[in-house]
């Protein structure tokens, strides 16, 4: 058992949000210092639509590094890419505490953070200081809770992070900002992507083009999935979708005393649902947009399931709460073992033809 595994166990005695802040501070101060290692070239993938070249397909989802404080350190743990945020134009405190809950029996987390962050100014200062040569670092942008024009917030966020990020994600899928998921409705999404697309074209004229992704919720019926796919495919500037964020549903299998807390559920109970929604999007979109699979990943087998559902890359976060930061290295090692056993020389070979 590594020192990081022992530290993960020790930190779990703290309240969830306190433990998260302690982890960020430990990484910033060097108390927890990853060792940069060589990547196995067999794990490298290039996303078809965006052209992003990733040393491996396993990314860190938004939510862990809200203020772009430790992206370099997380790349050092072996992630193929790191997504910082969600960031809003103005700083906001988020929802009242407690707002983050471990469901240890279920290997799950419920959060109702509410886009707590230090604002776009601080975020961009931190993001711009990350050496680009370290790896792929994305920026996830959202809207302030009290904004009178939330779409304007997304436009401002995209413009601010564009010159300093490897890619940009538009997050309309959090359940913890009232009304935000309404931007996934066909009419609202069409307006959102129209205005953000204008900003993307404006920025691309002066700064190298950036891939842009739309992050969606798992709580979508067939009609909503079809509408989102249709609107997304109509955007010639949009690179892909991240499927998915947390769910507001509560499976009957949940055993933790925190299972009734309000907020978005992530972790193991989300794996099956998010993978099914991912497969539904792939059936409609194919390779015309890049698909990044998120939700419930904790093993190489989970990664393979996402790839077989149509993802080109994946993201995880909640599993780190229970397995620690060395999880990504174990997943990569196990993924290579699975590839060898199946006679596969690239993760892309798992994907449906």
Structure in words:
This protein is α/β, with parallel strands linked by helices. The protein has one domain (35-350): Aldolase class I (TIM Barrel, Alpha-Beta Barrel). Helices cover 36% and strands 16% of the residues. The protein contains 11 helices and 13 strands. The strands form 3 sheets. The chain has an 8-stranded parallel β-barrel with strand order 3-4-7-8-9-10-12-13, surrounded by 4 helices. A 3-stranded antiparallel β-sheet has the order 5-6-11. Strand 8, helix 6 and strand 9 (212-216) form a beta-alpha-beta unit. Helix 5 packs parallel to helix 6 (186-204), helix 6 packs parallel to helix 7 and helix 7 crosses helix 8. The longest helix is centred in the middle third of the chain and has 19 residues, at 186-204. The mean pLDDT is 96.
Radius of gyration using CA atoms only: 19 Å
* CATH uppermost class: Alpha Beta
Low-confidence stretches: none
CATH 2nd-level architecture: Alpha-Beta Barrel
CATH fold label: TIM Barrel
Total number of helices: 11
Strands, count: 13
- Succession of helices and strands: HHEEEHEEEHEHEHEHEEHEHEHH
Report the helical percentage. Answer: 25-40%
Residue fraction in strands? 15-25%
- Secondary-structure content class: alpha/beta
- What distance lies between the first and last C-alpha atoms, to the nearest angstrom? 39 Å
- Counted up, domains total 1
Oligomer: single chain
